[in-house]
UniProtKB/TrEMBL annotation:
Pfam families: ABC_tran. It comes from the Bacteria. This is Putative ABC transport system ATP-binding protein. It comes from Pseudoalteromonas denitrificans DSM 6059. The lineage of its organism: Bacteria, Pseudomonadati, Pseudomonadota, Gammaproteobacteria, Alteromonadales. Residues 3-226 form the ABC transporter domain.
Length: 226
């Protein structure tokens, strides 16, 4: 089990008041499991992904990634975890503007010494990016940028892939194709996939679905569903 969250609490400052966003949240992900994270806008889904990525400090509770307790790590150690264990597809995608599509896809895999040319070629083909390899990000459509971000995150074969609404700009048939591919690739590489989505249709493609409500998760599909 490479992601375990125990009794996580998180407050945010809202004007003059502090507001509880997460209150005693627990989660365990099993290898090769694909998980959808749903919840109302503002319920804290992106904040939870930021906490798991070590991009926001843990106020109270525990997040363990591959046996390492994030709350005890330095910034340098956290960035090592992001490099070695995590793949992240942000809402903004964060492609490097001066690198073409191919270099963007290969960048993080090379950084973590996990570059595998055949694996990258397979991703490029499956995501329909062959004709765009020499393009710069500024010349791509929103949907193309998303597919490049997905290829880049999968290229490094991460243990855990965090994805924040990765299909938001794609049309329905493309969304379905991309989510299926993400789920298949995650399973093929024993990657745990945690995907934020507002679409129940897309969520149904995952093994498990959790709903974030009042700072805690409820399993609405999967082995822990009661
Ligand atoms: N650093 C911060 N300081 C203060 N408030 C914050 C901070 N980060 C997030 N918030 C607030 O916390 C709440 C949860 O935000 P978050 O982005 O995690 O929600 P979400 O569930 O991902 O929403 P959406 O589905 O709309 O993307 C929001 O009300 C947001 O404005």
């Amino acid at each position: 089990m490479s992601l375990v969250i125990k009794d996580l609490h998180h407050k945010i400052i809202d004007g003059a008041h502090s507001k509880k966003l997460l209150s005693g949240l627990d989660l365990k992900l099993n290898p090769s499991t694909t998980v959808a994270l749903m919840g109302d806008s503002g319920s804290g889904k992106t904040t939870l992904l930021n906490l798991i990525s070590g991009l926001e400090p843990i106020q109270q509770g525990e997040i363990n990634i591959s046996g390492q307790a994030l709350q005890n790590l330095t910034e340098t150690q956290l960035s090592q975890i992001r490099k070695n264990d995590l793949g992240i597809i942000f809402q903004q995608f964060n492609l490097l503007s001066s690198l073409n599509v191919q270099d963007n896809i290969e960048f993080s895999a090379k950084l973590s010494n996990r570059f595998d040319r055949l694996h990258c070629q397979m991703l490029i083909q499956n995501l329909g990016l062959e004709s765009l390899l020499s393009n710069l990000p500024a010349t791509l459509s929103g949907g193309e940028v998303q597919r490049v971000a997905i290829a880049r995150a999968l290229a490094a074969k991460p243990q855990i892939l965090l994805a924040d609404e990765p299909t938001g700009n794609l049309d329905n048939s493309n969304s379905e194709r991309v989510v299926r591919l993400l789920a298949q690739l995650a399973k093929a590489h024993q990657t745990e996939l945690l995907m934020v989505t507002h679409s129940l249709y897309i969520a149904q493609e995952m093994d498990e679905i959790y709903q974030l409500n009042n700072g805690r998760l409820t399993c609405i599909k999967g082995s822990k569903h009661v």
